[in-house]
Structures are given as structure tokens and as C-alpha cells.
Amino acid sequence: MASKREMSGTWMPATVPQSSSVIAILLVLCSVITSTTFGYDGSMVNGLNILPSYLDYFDLNTATIGLQTSSVFIGGCLAGISWGKVTDALGRRPALFWAALITIVAVILQTAAQDIAMFVIARILIGFGTGASGLTGPAYLAETLPLHWRGWGLGIFNDCYYIGGLIAAGVTYGTFSMSSTWSWRIPSAVQGATSILCIVILPFIPESPRWLVYQGRSEAALKVVAQTYANGDATNPIVLAAFKEIVDTINYEKNVGETLSITQVFKTPVARKRILLACSAAVFSTIAGNVIAS
Q1: Of all residues in the chain, what percent are helix, strand and coil, respectively (each to 5)?
Q2: Quick count: other Cβ atoms within 10 Å of Cβ 2?
Q3: What predicted TM-score, i.e. pTM, was given to this entire model?
Q4: How many beta carbons lie within 10 A of that of residue 194, not counting itself?
Q5: If 0-12 CB within 10 Å is exposed, 13-18 middle and 19+ buried, where does residue 247 land?
Q6: Distances (CA, A) of 126 to 65, 105, 109, 134, 265
Q7: Which terminus of the chain has a smaller tally of CB atoms within 10 A, N or C?
Q8: Model confidence over 185-226: pLDDT tens digits?
Q9: What number of other Cβ atoms are within 10 A of residue 52's Cβ?
């Protein structure tokens, strides 16, 4: 009988609950934590910028405030360029694990920051960690959630960004009256809680069946589909149909489908339009003034 590690397809063993509903809830919870963390970060930094102890400790001016606030996007850009390959190579669960771990390390550095340089480095690492988890989370949900949960799960993914923002606003408001450096260190430390929760949940959710099929682990993939659709019943007709669809799609992509290189993406008019359309959503969501207002 295959071990839990072998059935997970990665170095991370999986002890998955029997109930498909519980699995779906854990999948959504683990993934939306990533958007909650990002939302917390954005609101927290805006809150810190009005804390006297924060401004005085680092002796900030307009330029350094802008640097400490925007440096998170440097890490986010680096993650966007590189983490897709990591996710495909390691698997969705390990990619989420390492992204959460990077975020936790960065949060520790940020909380313990002694000068501007240390704080900025921590901010870059936080941007990388949250960007990496934000890249992996939606793909993991889309590939692993059963069809009847998928729309709801993906729909609330970005909604949790605002939940994170509300939590950060409450925490920074609560520490505003503190005169010591803990007025900004406490909000920084709390940011790591969601990443810790993500790591705690990961051993109890399965790997993406689509990734498993792509790696040639069909037996493990069928088991995951059965766990997410039918409480582990691999003979269920819906399970078999969903599994066949995944296998057929992967075989098509490997044997018939064409993939575009980065160069071809920008040289091909249709692909270029799709990229611009996708990027426009991110651009317009931030230039509307909501970032300034927050």
C-alpha cells in the first residue's frame, strides 16, 4: 500500500479528512489566507504611516516613507516572474508551504527591524512571499476544488483581501495610543498569523489532481478526485468522469496542445491582447484611487 507521502506526490505527506465538504472548506480556507495576508499588509502599512512612534523611530521623510511602503511590490514582481516555475516543479502544496514560510521569516525581520535598510529588506521578502502565495493559491483552488464548489471558492478568494485590510485597520487602531515601538511592531508580528495557519492546514488537504496527472501519478490523482467529490469513493461515476476529463486534458496538452514561450507571448497578437487584458484588471484596480484613500 502506498504511503501518505507517495500518494501526495510530493515530500509533504497528506492526512486528508474523509468528508469531501470538510476538504473543500479546508482548501478554500488555506488558499484565501493568501489574499487575507496581502490585504492585511496593504492596510497595515498605511496605518503605520500615521503612527508617531513608527515615523520617529525610523526618522522618516517623504522619500523614505515611499520607499518603505512601495518596496513590497519589488518582491511581488520577482515572485510573479519566478514562482510559476516553482509551483509547477514542486507541486501546489509545497509551493504554498515555502511561500508561507518566506512570509513568516520576513514578518520576523520586519517586526525586529532596527533601521530603514532592515525594514525595506523585510518588506521586499514579504512582497515575494505574499506574491508567491497569491500566484499559487488561485491555481490550486481551480485545479482541486470540485466543480460545485469551484465558483464559490474562487469568488471569495479576492474578497478576503478586504477582510485582511479590516483586521489590520483594527490592530493598528488598537496600538495607536502606545508610545513605544510596540505600536508598530505588534501589527507587524500579527501579520505572520495567517501564514502560520496556512502551514497548519496544508497537511490535511490533498495535492492538485491535475498536477499529479501531469507528473504521471494517476493513481494518486484518482484518489484526490474521489476525496474531493465523493468522500473517497473512487467508483463514483462523477469521480470517474471528472478524472477522465483531467487525464484527457493533460494528454492533449502534452501531445497535441501548443505552449507559448515568453517571447512568443509578446510576438503573437492574440496572446498579447490576452496578456494586456489580464494586466489591465490589476492596473485599473489600483489607479482608481483606492490605494491612496486607504
Answers
A1: 80, 0, 20
A2: 11
A3: 0.88
A4: 26
A5: middle
A6: 17, 8, 10, 12, 29
A7: N
A8: 999 999 999 999 999 999 999 999 999 999 999 999 999 999
A9: 11
